[in-house]
Amino acid sequence: MASLPLLGLLSLILTTNAATATTNSATGIRHGIIRKPSSDVPVFKEAPAFRNGDICGSNASDRIHIAMTLDANYLRGTMAAVLSILQHSTCPENVEFHFLWGKYEPEVLVSINSTFPYLNFRVYRFDPNRVRDKISKSIRQALDQPLNYARIYLADILPADVKRVLYLDSDLVVVDDILKLWEVDLEGKVLAAPEYCHANFTKYFTDLFWSDKGLASTFDGRHPCYFNTGVMVVDVDKWRQGGYTQKVEEWMAVQKQKRIYTLGSLPPFLLVLAGNIKAVNHRWNQHGLGGDNLEGRCRSLHPGPISLLHWSGKGKPWLRLDSRKPCVVDHLWAPYDLYNSSIQSLEE
């Protein structure tokens, strides 16, 4: 079992490498009872160990880098997302997770190590103060959390050896081999994501924005389409060289002076990149399953093949399942839920 990093060093990048762990095939079940680390952190079953297929390489270039935020409030979603990625991956041992957390929560780290003893991951501190003063109030409080903006700073946080990263939200599950998305040809673009050109793009910005010719002209020469920032393949070097963090921050500063949007960290991404990304097949982000941002009403699946299910919106599947008022699509998330409420009752 991988050893726990030193919990006292807040700014240290914590690395757990479980490449030498043994036993248990990808199809084997090895669920153990994990002692509850804290009353604030859910209890999880130990996940099975997943092993590489014969075709997998073992070089640094074969690594698949995935970045996610880490928050006790969304930990149940994160655990399900990680399990789904590993379970459907041809080369699960080549996947390396980069977790960003805004608050030091050692119990969360204990849970990850206990639930995934073989997981390759590093944890990085994201300083909330870096963005706190730049955030403007949006239509939903959850969108205003500093950690929601950490994706803007990936190029500053990740080590130099990470040239490409796949950013994923915590409220999704992957039902296909993540390698297929990882290997997408960016064609010189800084970012790849599914585009939705049928969506009403004007609704992502206020009337004040569209009535200001100087602001609206930012889209001149582009054919801007909506894309969801919860699933993105990012060329980290190109992002850094192009100063994209600063470009996003500049629009956040404009938002502080003028109310030009209401949806948190998404609109400044659209202002900088909409119409200038590599479009990915829609199957890689079946988004909106959490409903709208105000009421979170149930939504049906869109027609077509699916590789990734995303509960963006107010409703989260674990909360709706626990309330015994789930939407039909929430039952697609349930098989990846490692939460074990019976452990808590036994220990109490």
From TrEMBL:
Residues of the signal peptide: 1-18
UniProt topology in membrane: Single-pass type II membrane protein
A cellular component term, taken from the record's GO annotations: Golgi apparatus
SUPFAM superfamilies with a match to the protein in the record: Nucleotide-diphospho-sugar transferases
Enzyme class: transferase
Main localisation: membrane
Domain of life, per lineage: Eukaryota
Gene3D superfamilies per UniProt: Spore Coat Polysaccharide Biosynthesis Protein SpsA, Chain A
Cellular localization per UniProt: Endomembrane system
Pfam family, one: Glyco_transf_8
EC numbers: 2.4.1.-
One MF annotation (Gene Ontology) recorded for this entry: glycosyltransferase activity
Keywords: Glycoprotein, Glycosyltransferase, Membrane, Signal, Signal-anchor, Transferase, Transmembrane, Transmembrane helix
Pathway terms, separated by semicolons: Glycan metabolism; pectin biosynthesis
Family, as annotated: Belongs to the glycosyltransferase 8 family.
Name the UniProt record assigns to this protein: Hexosyltransferase
